[in-house]
Amino acid sequence: MKCRKFLIKFFIIFYFLFSQSNAFEIVRDTELEQFTDDIISLLLQSNNLESEDLKIYFVKSDQVNAFVTGGQNIFINTELILTANDYREYAAVLAHELAHILGGHIFNTSIEISNLSNKALPIYLLGIIGMIAGATDAGIAGVMVGQASVSDNFSYYSRTQEASADQAAVKLLCNNGINGKFLMEFLKKIENVNESFALDENNYRSTHPLVQNRVGWINSSLENYNDCDYNTDKIFQKKFDLLKAKLHGFTHPHYETEAVYNSTDDVDLYATAVSNYFQGNHKKSIENMKRLIKKHPSNPFYNELLGEIYFANNDYESATFYHEAAINNIDKVNDLYYMIMGNYLLTFEETNKLTEAILNLKKSLLINSENAYAWYLLSRAYAQTGSISLANYATAERYFLIGERELSYEFAVKALKQIEENSPEWYRSNDLIEILQKEVSKR
Ligand SMILES: [Zn+2]
Staple partner for 155: which of 35, 92, 103, 111, CB 3.0–4.6 Å? Predict the structure, then answer.
């Protein structure tokens, strides 16, 4: 890969090499986030750590990888999920990473992920087309690149920590009804992947415990748990297959998805609907999604995708109709769903729809105040309803999040001139100004 020395191997064990600074793309998607959260919550049942304490980032990448940084950030590559056949393999990877966090393991060298919470805007798996179209100002265009960068250094855990993470992973799996053998299954599978990607330098084997050793310590742990032989959870597996179908359609070439997912069962229809959508063949996607929704009307993700396709085709009524069904059927509402709804509603001219858009965007920000794109949409919504000072305030928040301190200060000052005194936005604008002034005085 030319100048990039992307290390192309897998590392359930943390092994991560980025030479210089390499950018990568963060993906956000409700189905992906919720499935992962469900597994993590299951694994953490008997621990003090809550899934909310963790930050999980999904990286769009064709390399199989997963790693932890900065204490509680877990990074998972999309291809890792696609490589797992069974959801328990994915659960095993998560368990291993969680074990590093629970064990308080520290890398031998430091690794720094920069720009994650500020300059980076994630790629939204869905909802992106309308968003790019709406992003007319230069400020937002500059941050639409869903990238974060990782600076230098090669980091790894010690062999002892790896052994202990494997053992703790087996414990997490077996104590929570998931067959721990899938950790081994996945390692073996990855070993083959690694061989085909073997690079000349910084070989995985030269710095990490051999998989055969790991198998040894995993086996000895399994013996402590009566073989840890639990049945599969069919509902989880079906959800996982659907999630993979979507990811495949999103990250692999169209012809590949069509070749792999070539029947008319749910999973295949879903994969090809996603793939055709990104391919621009919306008629086919709509056809597939209608079939799926007819069979499973309460699947939020099907409704979300169909809404998105309609939105891309400027059918805003249908877009909001299906997206509302998605919101009504999701187990846990999240910032993305409200943000997307806000975005859809912004396309209407009527005041009542704009008011609704503002309500949805506020809900989104209440759940996740660090969603810079929701702030951007909120500023547009305020501007469209003539509330310029509130639009300035929302813009100040967005600039603050993306690290544009001077612009943030400027907009907060502008907002304060007209904003209603003692309103929450008034207080927050004052706070922003204070924070930013302190920063300047520290320089
Ligand atoms: Zn590890």
Answer: 111
The total domain count for the chain is 2
Kindly give the distance from the C-alpha atom of residue 288 to the centroid of ligand 1, in angstroms, as a whole number. Answer: 40
CA of 67 to the centre of ligand 1 (A): 7
> Separation of 163 CA from ligand 1 center, angstroms?
8
CA distance 239 to 243: 6
As given in the structure block, the two tokens for residue 217 are 């310590």
Compute the distance from residue 17 Cα to the ligand 1 centre, in Å: 14
Q: What is the pLDDT of residue 416?
A: 93
- In this structure, is residue 274 part of a structural domain? no
pLDDT at position 201, please?
Answer: 32
Ligand 1 centroid–CA 150 distance in Å is 19
Cα of 197 vs centre of ligand 1, distance in Å, is 20
Asked if residue 402 belongs to a domain, the reply is: yes
Q: How far is the CA of 403 from the centre of ligand 1 (A)?
A: 32
The answer as to whether 142 is a domain residue is yes
The 3-state secondary structure of 296-339, one letter per residue = CCCCHHHHHHHHHHHHHCCCHHHHHHHHHHHHHHCCCCCHHHHH
**Residue where the block lists tokens 């050793």:** 213
pLDDT score, position 223: 87
End position of a domain, from candidates 207, 228, 249: 228
pTM: 0.84
Domain coverage including residue 154: 15-228
12 neighbors 2 (Cβ within 8 angstroms): no
Let me know: does 388 contact 382? Beta carbons within 8 Å: yes
Residue 198 inside a domain? The answer is yes
Q: What pLDDT score does 198 carry?
A: 47
Q: Mean pLDDT per 10-residue run, the chain (443 residues)?
A: 30 27 71 95 87 85 78 85 96 93 68 45 49 36 37 56 90 94 88 55 43 84 85 95 96 96 97 93 96 98 95 94 97 92 93 96 94 92 95 95 90 94 94 89 69
Domain end residue (candidates: 228, 245, 274):
228
